[in-house]
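Researcher: Batch entry, complex prediction.
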Amino acid sequence: MSASAVALDRRQISRFALFVHRSRAVPYLLLLPCAAWIVIFFIVPLVLMIWRSLTHEGFSTVVYTELMTSPQYIKVMMTSLKIVSLTTIVTLLIGYPIAYALTISGTWSRIAILTLVTIPYWVDVIVRSFSWLIVLGDNGIINKTLMQVGLTGRPLPLLYSLVSVLLAMIQILLPTMIITLFGAMLRIDRNLLLAAKIHGATGFQAFRSVFLPLSLPGIYGACLLVFVIGLGFYVTPALLGSPAETMISQTIMIEANENLDYERASAAGVILLLITIAIVTIYNRYFGLERLWGGAER
Amino acid sequence: MKASSIVLGLMVFGGIVYLLFPVIVVVTISFSSATYLNFPPPGYSLQWYLKMLNDPEWLSAFWVTVKVGVLASLLATLVGVPAAFALVRNAIPGQSLLNAIILSALVTPPIVSAIGVFIMYVPLGLVNSLLGLAGAHAVAGIPFVVINTAASLRSADRDLERAAIIHGASPLAAAVRITVPIIAPGIVVGFILSFVHSAHELLIASFVLGGVGKPISVKMWSQVQSTTDPSVTAASSVLIGIAILTVISVGASRSLAKRRTR
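Model: Structure tokens for the complex:
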């Protein structure tokens, strides 16, 4: 190829670039690979799963009818909702004071607390669940201590119970609760508390009548996140629960992996997804999702 | 007032003990000289680390996790960084789209994605494929990359890029050679978070690579279900060590990002 041909080629490329630039297509072209990836590896699988759940011997909703009327599925769903509700409430009760302490602490203690709170966040859920297996066992440190102190004669059956599942789930979801609450609390104008105190409120009164109501959107948002993430838990109840603590993800896993019944697994998956979407939609309707992301660029 | 801050301090202390106690237990037991899980251990040794290092299954699992994680995070970075440019610099309905992506990635139950991906992969022959798992993990990595790149990009000085264009650089070259190095720490944070997510992910991994060539999460899960052998605590402790190194490097690149974009 001669030098002039290369030059011509270059000019054509730059003309093309200019054309693309002027047509205001650039932002969409930049978004295209990302959108394509999400569609292919996230949306298409979900659509295929919905399709699979509806095509049991021809097109029918028979699998859904089966699941909705199966006492086993209703029980598992109720158990899941019960465990997640308890987890969310306790996580909020433990997380709120810590998030509040973060908002009033100085720079260094804030960095220290935040680091300590986020360390478990980086540890695999399998490891964090497994550690409770060691701690709560018959020879575990809790039972040993209780026996040494003389509070109990023989080891308490702490493991494979609601208690062990809750202890681990709360521990795993606590960093999410604290960080989300903290993000929301940072947006509260602290001058309002000062104003309340100037007008004669005690510290506690100012907290209860000003700070607490203003932090409610943060509470709702953090609880939504913890609830919805907790609903999908698999490892923790499978490792630390008895059959009475079976959660929905475990049942779906058994349908797929052991029964090889992908129609039922898909249908149960769709139901779980619909419940999740319903919770998020109700939240969005009453509180607005944008509040949750107010600090997206933290 | 004094009493209330003492109570608050105790609550924070209690909460942090609760959060860290299990982590401390796992790390301590990994150095145990006993052949069973016992806390506190009767003595200390490195036997479980040696056992793990001599077990080809653990080593291959670590290697698989690294390959899948790096590949997934690279893919997420390649598609996520241009998307972050588009979302930050243009008045397209970007913010709501970004929120939708973050939210759907966060709230979709992992088992649902896993079943869906498996149903799609079986006819495509992508089951048992490293590439297949990386492709699915990349989806979850994209939000991390987009959020962190977008945050860096918002605080980066665009005039430097404009100056390069005025001096004759093409818009693409100016973006790649001027702005990308400036926002690199943000991209690195996104990459690391995406890698950590991939390394921890269990359900998609056990459907796609559950047979031969298991990644570390699948290997650990089968191990903790079947045995009470402390070697799993050694593997966990290595992961915790990697996690702490990651926290430090994220912190370092964040402060570097602040210094650069100030």
